[in-house]
Amino acid sequence: MATAHNDIQTYDIQTRYADISVLDTGGDGLPVLLVHGNSSCKEIFRHQIDYLKGKYRVLALDLPGHGASSNASEPQLAYSMPSYAHTVIEVLEKIGIERLVLFGWSLGGHIGLEMLALYPKMIGLMICGTPPVSTGANNVALGFRPSEHMGLAGKADFTEEDVKNFASDTVGVNAPHEPFIFEAVARTDGLARKYMFEFFLSPQATDQKRLAETSEIPLAIVNGAGDPFINSSYINGLNYRNLWKGTVFNLAGVDHAPFWEAPEVFNPILLEFLDEF
Questions:
Q1: What are phi and psi of 56, to 5 degrees?
Q2: Is 14 helix (H, G, I), strand (E, B) or coil?
Q3: 53, pLDDT greater than 70
Q4: CA-to-CA distance for 220 and 232, rounded, in angstroms?
Q5: Distance (Å, whole) CA 25 – CA 27
Q6: Which of 126, 153, 170, 172 has the largest count of CB atoms under 10 Å?
Q7: In sequence order, which residues have a C-beta less than 8 Å from that of residue 94 and are 6 or more positions away?
Q8: C-alpha to C-alpha distance for 92 and 4, rounded to whole angstroms
Q9: Fold classified for 9-275
Q10: What percent of the chain stands above pLDDT 70?
Q11: Could you tell me which residues come within 8 angstroms of residue 263 by beta carbon, excluding any fewer than 6 positions away?
């Protein structure tokens, strides 16, 4: 079912595990895909969609079990970073995308890192709030800071208080807290958090540190300096092969979602990255 608004279309793509809701601005520009974080939705990228449309073909989707996409038919198989990456690639192939730059936030950034090894049509990757970590719980822990609500990231059943806390912390305590942000958290299939987190900590997980450090395509990293979830010194200290501008951007005064909290600061950096392709 396609709906259009100011030339922006929303339509569903059927994939192996779920029906995926896609927002597509159309146009002839380079396709840019925006991938949201854990228990969020594509609408979180409103400021980037408005900023880039016309110059770029902006695509945003809801992951399985999130937003307007369906819950996964096989939750234990579908809800992992590698499986999410395969689902995203399946969507892009069905749309007919030939080259792509991806911006991924938090979980979306982890999916982008997975795609470095899986999707040669991706020519650039920007990540935000996403520590590239090696396999194993001890290595994963290096990339993150213990925070009050970090445990919610893998919790299946949310109370109303959990919804409020997770929504507030992930978009930033000082960011605009619009109703759709809380609705997205409440809507998310709790198994998506549970199985994703279990797989992320398992020995079967991907070595995303190696992928980030050896990537031949430009990797841009833009974080909020106040992000309560990530270990900035860990991310800043990795040995990247092709880090855009040779530096990790740590934006002052913003938290886990700088693109939402401070789009006026974030968007020009994203545009400068995209304009290199």
A1: -125, 155
A2: strand
A3: yes
A4: 14
A5: 7
A6: 170
A7: 13, 15
A8: 19
A9: Rossmann fold (3.40.50)
A10: 98
A11: 47, 48, 51
Q: What is the pLDDT of residue 16?
A: 97
pLDDT confidence bin for 242, thresholds 50/70/90: very high
Contacts of 62 (CB under 8 A, 6+ apart): 20, 21, 36, 41, 42, 68, 69
Q: How many CB atoms lie within 10 A of CB 222?
A: 22
Q: Are 81 and 89 in contact (CB under 8 A)?
A: no
DSSP string, 35-92: E--TT--GGGGHHHHHHHBTTBEEEEEPPTTSTTSPPPSSHHHHSSHHHHHHHHHHHH
Q: CA 243 → CA 101, 120, 125, 182, 238, distances in Å?
A: 15, 18, 10, 34, 10
Two structure tokens written together for 105: 């936030």
- pTM flag (> 0.70): yes
The token pair at 61 is 């989707």
Question: Residue 91 to residues 10, 17, 36: CA-CA distances in angstroms?
Answer: 13, 11, 15
Going from N- to C-terminal start, the domains of the chain cover 9-275
